[in-house]
Amino acid sequence: MARVLAVMLMALAFVQGSALDSEEDRPKGARRRQMERTRAAELEAAIAKSGCADLGGEKWFSDAHGELFQVKQDKCSISFQLKKKSGEMYEKKGVVRGTRVLVEPPFPEGQMLPNQTVMWESGARWERKW
Ligand SMILES: *[C@@H]1O[C@H](CO)[C@@H](O)[C@H](O)[C@H]1NC(C)=O
After folding, report:
1. 62 lines ligand 1 (CB under 6 A)
2. Per-residue model confidence as pLDDT tens digits over 59-109
3. What global pTM score does this model have?
4. Collapsing DSSP states into helix, strand and coil, what is residue 29?
């Protein structure tokens, strides 16, 4: 009897396990979801505290070309470096309101997603790397 039960439990665990597997197509799905929850909570806390998402501090983003960079943030004001076609660097400034990222024109409007990727209206995005 105990043996039958054990087999049934194993079968059940197997079914649940494979249901989970098909729900996520990546092997590190559980860790990724945990990371996303952490980031979403962080974002909410930043907005509750100061009224804006936090892009600054120790965070690193990768731009549309995969280059890593950091954003400076003072309260809800941000600045970051951009590269001109000539390769010369220049500074852009902006403000963050809630999850909206508004940069001096010409620049598309951005929105910080719960996983802290910044999605620009142009379709470009800044992925939060760490
Ligand atoms: C964050 O979410 C967006 C939209 O679902 C996705 O395109 C992007 O790749 C995600 N970024 C990370 C770092 O997972």
Report:
1. no
2. 999 998 899 999 999 999 999 999 888 989 999 999 999 999 999 999 999
3. 0.77
4. helix
